[in-house]
Write a structure and sequence with these properties.
single chain, alpha/beta, eight-stranded mixed beta sheet, four-stranded antiparallel beta sheet, 16 helices
Length: 404
C-alpha cells in the first residue's frame, strides 16, 4: 500500500494525516519456517481510535499483535510507532539480492543493474539493523533530556530541597531504563494463563513499574490501588491471588496491569473470547470507558464481528495471513465485498428465532472463489477508505455491484 493510499485510507490529506498516525505497519511478514503466519500486511492506526482486526482462528491476528509489540523479530517489513521505526525485517531485502543475482545469470538484467540493486538492498539492511540496535537508546536519551529539562530549573530554584533531589534521581533512573515498547501494552486472551498464580494481584499489576525502575513502595501501592478502582475492583483485592477471582475479574486485573504503564497503544488480543456473554459486555464497556477517559488507542483483535462492530472505528479482515478487506465499521457491515468477509458476517447469530432459522450461511472456498493464476491480486480502494484484496476482474465486479 502506498503512502497516498495510507492518506486516503484515513480520509485526510497527507499534511493532516501524518501527525495523527500513531502506528504504521508496512508490508509486515512474519514467517515461521515455511509457515507464512502474516504475509505482506499493511495498515495504519490513528491516535485515539479503535482498530479491529478480525478473522478465523489461525489467520494471523494474534501474530500481528505480537509482532507489533516486539515479542517476535519480524521477518520483513517495517513497524513505525509515533514516526519511529521500532520493527524491521530484512528477509525481503535478502530475497531481492538473491533474485538480482539469479536474473543476472539468466541475462534478464545487466551486471550494472544487479550491482545497483544489491547496493541498495544492502544499504536498507544496514539501516534496518541500525534502527533495531539504536531505537531504545535514542528513546532513553529523549526521556532523560525531558526529565532534566523539567527538574533542573526546579532544583536551581530550591537547591536545598532533599525531597525534590530524590524525586529527580528517581525519575532520571526510570528515564534511563525507558524502552519504546513500554508505550505499547498487551491484554492477553486467556485471563488464567496470563497471570502468574504465585504472585499476588499487587505484584502482578506493579511488576511493570518495578522493571521500569520505580522503587518508592508508597508510590507503587498508590498506583496499584488507583488501577484496581479504575477497572472496577477494590483495594482489598491487592493481596489476593489470581485463583481467588472469577474470569471477568482476572481479565480486569490484566487490564489494570496494562493501563498502569500509562501506554499510548493497547493491543487487546481477544480479551473477551474466554468469558461469558454478560461478562464480555462488562469488559468491553470497561475498555470503552478507559479509551475515552485516558485517551487510549486500541488494536482490538477478535473473531466475533458483532463485538468488533460495537467497539471499533475501523476494521481489518484477515484470512490466511493476508489482509483481505479494510474499511470503517459502518462501511464494512453496509457493503461487505470480499467473499470471506461476507462469510464471516453470515455466521453472526441473530437474536430472533424466526430470522435465525432462515439465515443463509455463506461458505467461503478460496480455491473456488478466486483465480489468481494470471491476474494477480493487490489491495485496492473500491470506495473511499474501503480497501479489498482483489485482482482486476474482481475489482470490476465489486464496482459493478456498487453501481460505480
Amino acid at each position: 500500500m502506498t503512502d497516498n493510499n495510507y492518506d486516503i485510507l484515513n480520509g485526510a490529506t497527507p499534511a493532516q494525516a501524518e501527525p495523527e498516525v500513531l502506528l504504521r505497519v508496512e508490508h509486515l511478514c512474519q514467517y515461521f519456517g515455511f509457515n507464512k503466519a502474516v504475509d505482506d500486511v499493511s495498515f495504519d492506526i490513528m491516535r485515539g481510535e479503535v482498530f479491529g482486526l478480525v478473522g478465523e482462528s489461525g489467520c494471523g491476528k494474534t501474530t500481528t499483535g505480537r509482532s507489533i509489540i516486539k515479542l517476535y523479530n519480524i521477518t520483513s517489513g517495517s513497524i513505525y510507532f509515533k514516526g519511529v521505526r521500532i520493527g524491521a525485517g530484512i528477509k525481503s531485502y535478502q530475497d531481492d539480492i538473491a533474485k538480482a543475482k539469479a536474473d543476472c545469470r539468466e541475462g534478464t538484467i545487466t551486471p550494472a543493474q544487479r550491482d545497483a540493486i544489491i547496493a541498495e538492498r544492502k544499504a536498507q539492511i544496514k539501516s534496518a539493523k541500525a534502527d533495531m540496535k539504536n531505537v531504545d537508546k535514542e528513546y532513553a536519551k529523549e526521556m532523560v533530556a525531558q526529565v532534566k529539562a523539567k527538574y533542573e530549573p526546579l532544583l536551581a530554584a530550591a537547591p536545598q530541597d532533599d525531597d525534590l533531589k530524590e524525586e529527580y534521581k528517581n525519575e532520571l533512573r526510570k528515564a534511563k531504563k525507558s524502552r519504546v515498547a513500554t508505550q505499547i501494552q498487551m491484554i492477553f486472551q486467556d485471563p488464567i494463563a496470563s497471570l502468574d498464580p504465585r504472585m499476588t494481584v499487587r505484584e502482578i499489576i506493579s511488576e511493570g513499574l518495578i522493571i521500569r525502575g520505580e522503587r518508592n513502595k508508597k508510590v507503587i501501592d498508590e498506583k496499584v490501588y488507583q488501577m484496581l478502582e479504575l477497572v472496577g475492583l477494590v483495594r482489598e483485592h491487592a493481596d489476593r491471588y489470581p485463583h481467588e477471582f472469577s474470569g471477568g475479574q482476572r481479565q480486569r486485573i490484566g487490564v489494570a496491569r496494562a493501563v498502569i504503564m500509562n501506554p499510548e497503544l493497547i493491543i487487546a488480543d481477544e480479551p473477551v473470547s474466554a468469558l461469558d456473554v454478560s461478562i464480555q459486555a462488562q469488559v468491553i464497556n470497561l475498555l470503552n470507558d478507559l479509551r475515552h477517559d485516558l485517551g487510549l488507542t486500541i488494536l482490538f483483535v477478535a473473531h466475533d464481528l458483532s463485538v468488533v462492530k460495537y467497539f471499533s472505528d475501523r476494521i481489518g479482515v484477515m484470512y490466511f495471513g493476508k489482509m483481505v478487506e479494510l474499511a470503517s465499521s459502518d462501511e464494512l457491515f453496509a457493503h461487505p465485498l470480499h467473499p470471506y468477509t461476507r462469510s464471516l458476517l453470515s455466521a453472526i447469530p441473530l437474536p430472533d428465532p424466526h430470522s435465525e432459522k432462515n439465515r443463509q450461511r455463506i461458505v467461503y472456498n478460496s480455491l473456488a472463489e478466486h483465480d489468481y493464476t494470471v491476474d494477480k491480486p493487490t489491495m485496492r480502494e473500491i470506495l473511499p477508505g474501503h480497501f479489498v484484496y482483489c485482482n482486476d476482474a474482481e475489482e470490476a465486479k465489486y464496482k459493478k455491484e456498487l453501481g460505480l
